[in-house]
## 1
Amino acid sequence: VYAEAINADGQVARVQMKGPEAYVFTAECLLLLSARIAESEGPRGFTTPAQWLDRDIEEIEGVELKVERL
């Protein structure tokens, strides 16, 4: 997966992520997210899975995450 964003000031951020097959990745994310929720480690109120996991997604076997701010 590749994503690039440019803000109003012209700052650029890029993210590249490689990981396991999509269904395996989804299942692994759900397991990791469920553990975080059960441990009550995370933000309160309305949140998204990304807010709970953040860079912890790298704990999933096979995930490689590269973040660049240019």
## 2
Amino acid sequence: IRAEDERRSVCPFNAAHLLRVPKLQFHLAKCPDHRRWVELGLPVYHCRWNFFHIFLDKTLFKEHEALCPSQ
């Protein structure tokens, strides 16, 4: 097992969803909380350096982009 497979990430739409990093993209595609968020027309902010750095708050998003480790 690769070390990357053991890293965990929290779903930005529901903190109870804890998953392995490689599974994040698949989870977001089927996450019911993500779908609800989109259906309500609420904004989702994606980091320009790493699409999987997702923020629901514009202020946190701006702060992250200035210091993103993926730059």
